[in-house]
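Practice problem 4.
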């Protein structure tokens, strides 16, 4: 996408993603693609995806789920912020541009909010994107209403993650988006059931993700990986958060222990954990229906709700009987949010 002297380019061509419109916003840290969908008079929900993903490969499962889409789009205008150079059709970022840090990426988010004239926003991030939005919430508390985090990180990389990151970094630098690297990334995102095995075919979700990974510019992914790999521990900053936080993590996620650690450090009055059985890191793609009821109760604390015509939809495999009773109590996900360890087993893998 070509640069111009203006601060932003609003493309008239509607993207394939739910009719959203793409804006290229220029910031001090380079241009960033933002897909805007919905009524901009509504409160804002911003999203940020994980490494090598964009709004399409990280959030389409959730937003293509009719019940979740009705809940979120009824209450919010969605601003999908893509990591630099991760949008569909992105060109390679100039090698002379400095590699951003996670602090640079959070400052870039602030510039995006200011460009659109947004005040306080709801945030939804996945893995590395969850870390960046949490750091943003720590640095700019007045700009964040709440956090919905999927398999979040808050510590510096463990030795295991550091090793994986180094291997991925070398593969990207020398070989690009090769098959071995894709296997590393799919392991990061999905459960064994979705990834398949010698006896079980790879799922449609994994195949679709693999095709989208093939489109990534290798050095753009490498730059984001350098930022993620160099992230500092922000555990102490969690204690200063004032907003409510809802955390989802799959039992099979490589970052399961990270999510548990983060939950243990958050203010117990304003945070809740939902563990999803037989699911990897990307609950948004693998079991989006498992997010529906917890999000409904979480948003009720803000006076937000799902349209009545979608209530009790037979398309959702979840019913109140699937949810721990304490989650459905009046205090559980509202103004007096309790710490909850809820286990959800979805019957619709890859829904």
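Answer key:
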């Amino acid at each position: 996408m070509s640069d111009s002297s203006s601060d932003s380019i609003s493309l008239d061509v509607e993207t394939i993603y739910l009719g959203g419109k793409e804006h290229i916003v220029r910031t001090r840290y380079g241009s960033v693609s933002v897909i805007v969908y919905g009524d901009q008079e509504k409160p804002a929900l911003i999203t940020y995806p994980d490494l090598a993903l964009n709004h399409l490969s990280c959030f389409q499962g959730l937003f293509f789920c009719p019940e979740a889409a009705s809940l979120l789009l009824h209450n919010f205008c969605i601003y999908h912020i893509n990591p630099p150079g991760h949008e569909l059709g992105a060109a390679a970022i100039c090698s002379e541009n400095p590699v951003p840090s996670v602090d640079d990426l959070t400052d870039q988010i602030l510039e995006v909010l200011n460009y659109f004239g947004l005040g306080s926003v709801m945030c939804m991030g996945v893995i590395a994107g969850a870390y960046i939005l949490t750091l943003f919430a720590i640095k700019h508390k007045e700009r964040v209403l709440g956090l919905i985090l999927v398999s979040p990180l808050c510590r510096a990389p463990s030795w295991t993650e550091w090793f994986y990151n180094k291997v991925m970094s070398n593969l990207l630098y020398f070989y690009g988006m090769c098959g071995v690297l894709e296997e590393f990334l799919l392991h990061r995102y999905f459960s064994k059931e979705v990834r398949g095995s010698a006896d079980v075919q790879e799922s449609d979700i994994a195949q679709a993700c693999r095709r989208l990974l093939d489109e990534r510019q290798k050095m753009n992914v490498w730059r984001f990986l350098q930022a993620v790999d160099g992230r500092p521990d922000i555990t102490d900053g969690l204690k200063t958060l004032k907003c409510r936080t809802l955390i989802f993590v799959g039992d099979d996620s490589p970052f399961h222990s990270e999510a548990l650690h983060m939950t243990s450090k958050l203010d117990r009055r304003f945070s809740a954990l939902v563990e999803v059985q037989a699911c990897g890191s990307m609950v948004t793609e693998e079991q989006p229906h498992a997010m529906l009821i917890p999000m409904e109760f979480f948003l009720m604390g803000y006076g937000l709700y799902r349209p009545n015509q979608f209530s009790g939809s037979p398309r959702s495999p979840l019913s109140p009987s699937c949810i721990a009773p304490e989650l459905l109590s009046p205090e559980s996900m509202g103004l007096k949010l309790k710490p909850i360890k809820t286990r959800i087993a979805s019957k619709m893998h890859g829904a």
